[in-house]
Write a structure and sequence with these properties.
The protein is 34% helix and 15% strand. With 751 residues, it is of the alpha/beta class. Helix 2 (32-45) crosses helix 5 and helix 2 (32-45) packs across helix 7.
């Protein structure tokens, strides 16, 4: 293991993943008075503190600098505003603009802050930026706990998330590093394996990166790779192929390989960009910006659930945490019997699962666990609880804690390293930076009511490509994932009521535990080692799985953004403990569901049973942390709910655990609130036995348009209850084989 983890310094990364140097101008549109108010809020969240505030003995210079640092330092407030404009929802941005405008005036400050803004000297009423730090801190805490004026609570949550994400992810010095990282014990993974990368990657010959193309060169590149291209006078470039696949993740990647291997000319459209292991920088900010939907800052409309979804070649499989868990038998029985879907009870599905398992190189052992998984395992063992090893699509000695930003060792076998390589080897072409805008739906010539899909219209993100692309294909496959497939189908005219409904998120609640190095036998730091290697199942008295407890990968920016804020001093002290803070999460198979009919407009509601299961899982996660030897544990409830463990009596622990619950989000009316998370999205175009029960049939074909298929996590009938990569790829393998059979039958009939 040591030989694998020793290496040499990286010489360079992909330009998109290196991070940006400071901007001198901004386009956020906020006025100077609004930025002044925003600057004061950032200064309150991250205040400059006196050196005597540092509790450590003999603090380092880096720690001195961190405690003196302020969130108001230029250009951080402008960068916060810029990111909010780029990633925020319209109504959230409108709320922020209104509140900042009010805080930039004396009357507005009085209305929003109350009597704390009153002074003894003219003009007697202070603007927010003129109030003392202590009083500003109290104002923010009042907003956070607002039960009736919940827009102020939402405003606080938005400010906290964006401010901390920028502060801890931005690279500010000449080496494009963040001075705070040293103070909190964080190190970017900047080593690489001694083993040299291959001179040429096979997938390269099939990839066309539109960022490097223009109108004429794109036509040449497409033609060179065997596609028929026709340019017409309507500023449209027509491309002909057998199969067009929208998306390159767990569904699209598998479908591309199966159909290309069957002899069909396949074109894959991917709106994200392509990166190789040598490109990855492991820098949280640019890595999330380039490889996640909405830069990793996306939520439900009510800001209750923070959502992570991949957006790069390989989709979620390029940035997930490697967990490769087979579909549980009880799920397959439920889907085949209760939902009347024979596929999931067939040998076809089980054989496909074995094929997937083998192709992505799943291993079932881990040579060495990282800090967080050691905590989970030791806590379970000390409590006499069962702990299982998680199969991973990587080698047994894969010790990479930055796979959420792309696996720099090239060990994790995402679709970009497996299925898409197979597809390109059989003649498939992958077009990056290309977004599907609308499916081409036409009347069917056979006189039936059912329409026909003849392809898709797409556009390229490159400014040098001005023409729209119209891809004509015998089969069109939407594989953009559960959040993007429904909006595409609905905007193209499909009307099945199940499209966009039944969205499952596997909601997650987090717990943390602090393990001082001097008091713990568990070695390492939270960002080291394989991300997911162990799990514990929380089982009810009826032997029903209520929740899974696993560990959570959070870079410093994400960690700070979602962590409770109760004061500037508390937050800085929490961040100093970052590297030795283990985060566990409780994940449930949700009975509740949501909907997504427009991009980034996600609605979701938890079922009461989900809340109860999350509560059980969260309480168990806290028990595990305590049993592993944590000095302090807590939840992510807005008031910083926590307990110091040293010398505490069992009765006090149980009293603390009794107060743990699955609360509401920022828009709730409860005294406290919390943020949920989701990295798994399923079911929004579910398979049904008929069109009254699902959006597509068992072959993945839409009921309304012949030749239009869905092949991603959205087709799953319900939530899976475990990390869904294997289930999605297996379902995609079965569907794409059936598509190949259907195309062959059509060819036979034509002959």
């Amino acid at each position: 293991m040591e030989e694998e983890r020793t290496g040499v310094e990286r010489r360079g990364h992909h330009p998109l993943l290196r991070g940006e140097r400071r901007k001198s101008s901004f386009s956020h549109g906020f006025s100077s008075s609004q930025i002044q108010a925003l600057s004061s809020i950032c200064d309150t969240l991250i205040p400059p503190l006196r050196l005597e505030s540092i509790s450590k003995e003999n603090p380092s210079q880096a720690l001195h600098s961190f405690f003196k640092a302020s969130g108001s330092q230029f250009p951080l407030p402008d960068e916060v505003a810029e990111l909010m404009k780029k990633r925020g929802l319209p109504e959230g941005l409108m709320l922020v603009s209104l509140v900042l405008k009010m805080l930039s005036t004396r009357l507005g400050t009085l209305l929003l802050c109350g009597f704390v803004c009153l002074g003894w000297k003219w003009p007697f009423i202070l603007k927010f930026s003129e109030i003392s730090l202590e009083k500003r801190e109290q104002v923010l805490l009042n907003w956070s706990s607002q039960r009736f004026l919940y827009p102020l609570r939402l405003f606080f949550a938005i400010m906290k998330i964006f401010c901390f994400f920028i502060f801890f992810s931005r690279q500010t010095d000449d080496n494009l590093e963040n001075p705070a990282w040293e103070a909190i014990g964080y190190q970017v993974d900047n080593k690489e394996c001694v083993k040299k990368p291959p001179k040429e990657r096979p997938i390269r010959k099939g990839i066309i990166e539109t960022m490097n193309e223009n109108d004429s060169s794109l036509v040449q590149s497409l033609t060179h790779r065997g596609l028929k291209v026709i340019e017409d006078q309507r500023n449209i470039c027509k491309i002909k192929c057998d199969v067009v696949i929208i998306g390159s993740g767990c569904g699209g990647g598998v479908a591309a390989a199966v159909l290309a291997r069957a002899g069909y000319k396949v074109l894959v459209l991917e709106k994200g960009n392509y990166f190789e292991p040598e490109d990855y920088s492991s820098l949280e900010g640019p890595s999330m910006s380039e490889q996640y939907e909405s830069g990793g800052i996306m939520s439900t409309i009510d800001a209750k659930v923070m959502i992570l979804a991949g957006s790069t070649v390989g989709g979620g499989s390029a940035v997930n945490w490697s967990a490769s868990i087979k579909t549980p038998n009880y799920i397959l029985r439920e889907w085949s019997a209760d939902h009347k879907l024979p596929l999931f009870g067939s040998s076809e599905y089980l054989s496909a699962m074995d094929v997937v398992w083998k192709r992505i190189g799943v291993t079932e052992k881990c040579a060495e666990e990282g800090f967080q998984n050691q905590v989970l395992r030791q806590g379970c063992e000390n409590l006499g609880l069962n702990v299982e090893s998680i199969p991973r699509n990587s080698s047994e000695d894969h010790y990479c804690g930055s796979c959420a930003y792309g696996c720099r060792r090239g060990d994790k076998q995402g679709t970009q390293s497996t299925w898409l390589v197979d597809a390109v080897g059989c003649g498939a072409v992958i077009l990056t930076g290309c977004k599907a805008e609308k499916l081409v739906i036409e009347e069917n010539k056979d006189g039936t009511k059912r329409k026909k899909c003849s392809g898709v219209i797409a556009s390229c993100s490159s400014e040098n490509i001005t023409k729209k692309l119209q891809i004509e294909a015998k089969a069109t496959i939407s594989a953009g994932g559960s959040l993007l497939t429904p909006p595409l189908l609905l905007s193209s005219g499909l009307e099945n009521p199940h499209i966009g409904k039944n969205l499952h998120l596997h909601p997650v609640l987090l717990a943390w535990g602090y393990f001082p190095e001097s008091q713990s036998g568990i070695q390492g730091k939270r960002f080291e080692g394989g991300i997911l290697t162990s799990l514990h199942k929380v089982v009810s008295e009826e032997s029903r799985v209520q929740a899974l407890v696993e560990v959570c990968a959070l870079g410093p920016a994400s960690f700070a953004a979602i962590h409770p804020w109760i004061s500037g001093l508390d937050m800085k002290e929490r961040m100093v403990k970052y590297s030795r803070t283990a985060t566990l999460f409780a994940l449930v198979r949700d009975e509740g569901a949501g909907e997504v009919k427009l991009e980034r407009r996600i609605k979701y509601r938890l079922h009461p049973a989900d809340k109860e299961n999350l509560r059980s899982g969260l309480r168990q996660a806290l028990r595990i942390l305590i049993a592993a030897g944590a000095a302090e544990v807590g939840t992510y409830r807005s008031d910083g709910q926590s307990i110091k463990c040293k010398g505490v009596k069992d009765e006090a622990v149980e009293e603390f655990l009794d107060g743990v619950a699955a609360g509401g989000g920022p828009c709730s009316r409860g005294e406290h609130w919390t943020l949920y998370s989701s990295a798994h999205q399923m079911g929004s175009c579910r398979i049904g036995a008929n069109e009254e029960e699902g959006a597509v049939d068992e072959n993945g074909e839409t009921w309304e348009a012949k030749g239009l298929y869905v092949c991603d996590g959205s087709v799953l009938p319900t939530a899976v209850g475990v990390n869904p990569m294997i289930t999605i790829q297996t379902t995609a393998y079965c569907i794409s084989n059936r598509i190949a059979e259907s195309l062959k039958k059509q060819e036979f009939l034509v002959k």
